[in-house]
Design brief:
single chain; 3 helices; globular; 15% strand; alpha/beta; 29% helix; 66 residues
Amino acid sequence: MPTEATREQVRQLAAVGAQVVDVLPAAEYRSTHLPGAVNLPLKELDARTDQLDRSRPVIVYCHDTV
């Protein structure tokens, strides 16, 4: 179930092994992303969830400067 998280909660989850997923298009991901984040573009997310470890928490984010 999706849950909103604060920056500190994200840091804590990532520190204990949560998977960080950036859903921006690949070109935007290449220009800027959080350290350790993997890129699963939003338009491809449903088809690529098999790349995630279901035994670990998943943090999904999208940085939009607009």
